[in-house]
């Protein structure tokens, strides 16, 4: 992994020197197994995004998205959410927290609400412990306040209380 991080640093160096061809040569010699590591993959992704290599960034994202690293979603959503639809329909619930937080930070509350609703709808009776956690609720509340929907923020706080009480009751009953 250390060698891969060195290569990424070298790649970034060449980009900063405006020598894109040299940087892309380094990118091409990076082994795909190295890029599947979340630390290396996210660093490569960030370098590609920062230096305008959108096609390569999307190709790498498509390769590593199956591992569902929350930071990976964050990098792409913050960089390209307006330009291309991120294929989130098949993302697992474990990624929803990151997706919701990014959407809320961008003030895209209708999209965040859709994912939040999916988190609840995908919970079966015996899986109620899996639903949205406190940080997900907090992201929604902050997002509502940011866009001036204070009443919705209070409703979300009430939902959070009910959800967490339900989780506590289920936990104590088992």
Notes on the protein architecture:
The protein is mainly α and 174 residues long. It folds into 2 domains: 1-87; 96-174. It has 10 helices and no strands. Helix 1 packs antiparallel against helix 2 and helix 4 runs parallel beside helix 6. The longest helix has 24 residues, at 150-173. The N and C termini lie far apart (43 Å). The model has no long low-confidence stretch (mean pLDDT 80). InterPro entries: PPR_domain-containing (IPR052308), PPR_rpt (IPR002885), TPR-like_helical_dom_sf (IPR011990).
Fraction of residues in H or I helices: over 70%
How many DSSP-defined strands? 0
How far the N terminus sits from the C terminus, by CA atoms, comes to 43 Å
Estimated share of beta-strand residues: under 5%
Tell me, briefly, the overall form: elongated
Task: Name the poorly predicted regions.
Answer: none
Radius of gyration: 19 Å
Tally of individual helices: 10
Largest sheet: none
Overall pLDDT metric: 80
The helix-strand sequence is: HHHHHHHHHH
Quickly count the domains.
Answer: 2
> Based on helices, strands and strand pairing, what is the structural class?
mainly alpha
């Amino acid at each position: 992994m250390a060698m891969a991080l060195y290569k990424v640093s070298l790649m970034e160096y060449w980009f900063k020197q405006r020598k894109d061809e040299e940087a892309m040569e380094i990118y091409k010699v990076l082994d795909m197994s190295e890029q599947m590591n979340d630390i290396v993959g996210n660093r490569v992704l960030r370098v590609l995004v920062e230096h305008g290599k959108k096609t390569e960034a999307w190709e790498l994202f498509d390769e590593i998205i199956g591992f569902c690293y929350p930071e990976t979603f964050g990098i792409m959503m913050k960089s390209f959410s307006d330009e291309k639809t991120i294929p989130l329909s098949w993302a697992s619930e474990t990624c929803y927290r990151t997706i919701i937080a990014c959407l809320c930070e961008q003030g895209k509350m209708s999209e965040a609400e859709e994912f939040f609703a999916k988190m609840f709808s995908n919970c079966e009776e015996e899986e109620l412990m899996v639903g949205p956690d406190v940080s997900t609720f907090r992201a929604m509340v902050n997002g509502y306040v940011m866009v001036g929907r204070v009443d919705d923020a209070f409703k979300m706080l009430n939902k959070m209380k009910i959800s967490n009480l339900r989780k506590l009751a289920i936990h104590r009953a088992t």
